[in-house]
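Review form for a predicted model. The reviewer records the input and the model, then writes brief findings.
Reviewer: anonymous (R2)
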Amino acid sequence: MAKSDVKAPAKEKAAKSASDNGKTKAASKSDITVAEKLVELYRLQYIDSQVDKIRIQRGELPLEVQDLEDEVEGLDTRLKKLQDELGEMEVQVSEKNNLIKDAKAQIKKYEGQQAKVRNNREYDSLTKEVEFQNLEIQLAEKRIKEAKAQIETKKAIVEESKTRHDERKKDLDVKRKELDAIVAETEKEEKDLAKKSDTASKHIEARLLSAYHRIRSNARNGLGVVPVERGSCGGCFNSIPPQRQLDISSHKKVIVCEHCGRILVDDYVVERVTGGK
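Model under review:
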C-alpha cells in the first residue's frame, strides 16, 4: 500500500477535528442561555455608563478648547494677512519716495541742460520734461499721503487683532490646562474601563452587540440596556404591563421596551452585574 493511502485518513480526521473545533467556538456565544446573554449585555452597559460619566465630568471643555483653537488659528491667519498688506503698503511708500528722488534728480539734470540750449525749441522741450517730473512728484506725494493714512488705519487694526489674538491664546492655554488636569485624573480609569468594555463585548454575539450599539447611539443618555424599575422602563419610564414583566423575568428571550426600544432586564440580571457575581 502507498504511503499516501495510509496518511489520507489521518489528514481527513485532522481536518474534520479542526472544523469541529471552529464550529464549537462559533457556536459557543449562541449556546449560552438568554439569561447569561442579558447579564453580559447589562455588564457592557454598566461599564460603558461609567465611561460616559467620566466624559460628562469634562463637560463642554473639549468643545470649548476646540472652538478656541479654531478661533486662534483664524486670528493667526487674519493677523498674518494684515501684516502682509501693511508690508506691501510700506513698500509702495518706499517706491514712491524713490520715484520722487529720481524725479528731482531728473529736474536738476534738465535745468542744467536748459542753461546750455541753443534754441527755444530745445528749451521748451526741457521745460515740458521738468513740468512732467514735477507732476510725477505731486502725484507720488499724493499717493504717499493716502498710503500713510491707510497704513495708520491698518496698524490700528493689526494692533487690535494682535490684542484679541493674545487674549484668546491665553484663554486657550487656561482651558487646555483645565482639560489636561481632568484628563490626567481620569485617563487611567478610562483606559481600564475601555479594556473592560472590549473584553465584555467579546462575550456577546455580533447580532446582539450590533443592536446594543444601535440602540445606545440613538438614546440621549447612552442607555441601551435598562432595568425594570417599579414596573416601568428604566429608560423612558413608561409603564410595562404585568405579563410583559413576567416575560422579562423568565429570561426566555430578549425583550425590548415597546415605547423606546431599549433592551429590558430584571433585578436578577442587575444583581449579577452590580453585585459582583
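Findings: The two ends are 60 Å apart (CA to CA).
Further findings: The chain is about 80% helix and 5% strand.
Recommendation: see findings above.
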